[in-house]
Amino acid sequence: MAEIALKNLGHSYFANPKSEEYYALKPVDLVWEDGKTYALLGPSGCGKTTMLNTISGLLHPSHGQLLFDGRDVTQTSTAERNIAQVFQFPVIYTTKTVRGNLSFPLECRNWDPKDIGKRVAEVSELLELDDILDLPARRLTADQKQLISLGRGLVRDDVSAVLLDEPLTVIDPQMKFSLRRKLREINRQTGITMILVTHDQSEAMSFADEVVVMNDGRVQQSGRPEQLFERPENTFVGYFIGSPPINLFNVDVRNDSLVCPALDLSDIPRGQLQPGSLQIGVRPEHLSFSDPTDNGALATVEACEDLGIDKILSLRAANGEFFKVKSRARQKIDIGRKLAISVAAKDVLVFQDGKLA
Ligand SMILES: Nc1ncnc2c1ncn2[C@@H]1O[C@H](COP(=O)(O)OP(=O)(O)O)[C@@H](O)[C@H]1O
Ligand SMILES: [Mg+2]
């Protein structure tokens, strides 16, 4: 097991990258601590697979260094890194039994058959495969096949980390949930670092101790799920994390205060902020409503979507700005109704040039 550190590590698929734009992974410093669960989250094409493959060694980065426990492994082969990688589609031998699939990596390493039997039994117990050990792998369901792919990586007794590249894509939602839980359980039992690549924020947030958000080849923010939710470092993270995404409002500057007309806020400390590209961000969960009173922001309900526990209100502020509120309120809310909208000062985020101020 190892701490994995990226030191100014980047990759361009072009031989002579002229500028940052040519990098699928822009140079980044990042540490994956030993034993934690991570999610690497971002939209399709943002560089997740590129980063993962540089860690496993399928790809040699064009830039920077990769360290395992301080040791430079940038130029080493995949075999020397002891990384187990699971891909979007299960990689298994359909002609072999489950047991045969799990034994094979050890047979290739010339393990003693007795030791192979013992190790396969351990992994089978860990992944709860005992009942299907002697079935042909082709008869398994998609999630079982992914467990076998994982098992083939885990049988080796020297695994530094498990990297999973969108492994749940082919699995139906209920099984996704149970497989994700199983992955976490395996992490707790074995202490093996796990990095799960996904473009699905709820998958990332429910799986990982820490989520690394990427966009456009660049790491945007890394933190615990609640940090990403409460304090997104930029508007991309505010938008990508949370459903609905963060609301962004126009800001005016008045002397030493920032003014947000849509929410009728006029006393946000300005500090050193300059007029121009300022925005106020508020999560839909952090806005509340009540019947109109003499003061406070007024907004008109344009739509109300009932999600069972939550309601999503679409609202139009008096100044014409559009925003959403997520609420647990039980009462019926009619379209066209006017509501007073409020927010706690601690939940008002100020962004300058798209970055949290
Ligand atoms: N082998 C390759 N050659 C050239 N460009 C590639 C190659 N693989 C990926 N890319 C490009 O690099 C960018 C990042 O891709 P990728 O890491 O696969 O993203 P993700 O896994 O987040 O969907 C994309 O623009 C993609 O088109
Ligand atoms: Mg990918």
Structure explained in plain terms:
The protein is α+β, with helices and mostly antiparallel strands and 357 residues long. The protein folds into two domains: 4-240, Rossmann fold, CATH 3.40.50; 247-356, OB fold (Dihydrolipoamide Acetyltransferase, E2P) (Beta Barrel), CATH 2.40.50. It has nine helices and 22 strands. The strands form five sheets. It has a six-stranded mixed β-sheet, with helices on both faces. A five-stranded antiparallel β-sheet has the order 16-20-17-18-19, with no helix packed on it. The longest helix is centred in the middle third of the chain and has 18 residues, at 173-190.
If strands are numbered along the chain, what order do they take across the biggest sheet?
Answer: 6-7-8-3-9-10
Approximate shape: elongated
The average pLDDT value, as a whole number, equals 94
Heterogens: adenosine-5'-diphosphate, magnesium ion
**CATH level 4 superfamily of the largest domain:** P-loop containing nucleotide triphosphate hydrolases
What count of helical segments does DSSP give? 9
Helix and strand content put the structural class at alpha+beta
Top-tier CATH class of the largest domain? Alpha Beta
Beta fraction: 25-35%
What is the CA-CA span between the terminal residues? 38 Å
Largest sheet: 6 strands, mixed
How many individual domains? 2
Task: Return Rg in Å.
Answer: 25 Å
Can you count the beta strands?
22
Amount of helix: 10-25%
CATH topology of the largest domain: Rossmann fold
Which residue ranges are poorly predicted, with pLDDT under 50 across at least 5 consecutive positions? none
CATH architecture of the largest domain: 3-Layer(aba) Sandwich
